[in-house]
Amino acid sequence: MSQADLARAHWRKSSFSGGTKDAPDCVEVAPLADGRIAVRNSKNPEAGVVFFTRSEMDAWLKGVKAGEFDDLT
Prior knowledge:
By secondary structure, the chain is an alpha+beta fold. The protein has helices spanning 3-8, 54-65; strands at residues 12-13, 27-31, 37-41, 50-52.
């Protein structure tokens, strides 16, 4: 995936992402033409992107909704 392709992607940020001194977290996701989902830190997009298949993202979201990762925050 080229940087140009990633720059054209439709990045979405959660409404729970901050942007303030007290809540600086900014995670974005973008669906890609090849079916994968890209995830990045919007405050530092040059740091890299992690790619997930739709089934991997589905498993992750189900785990989040079930509270399986609540101990990480």
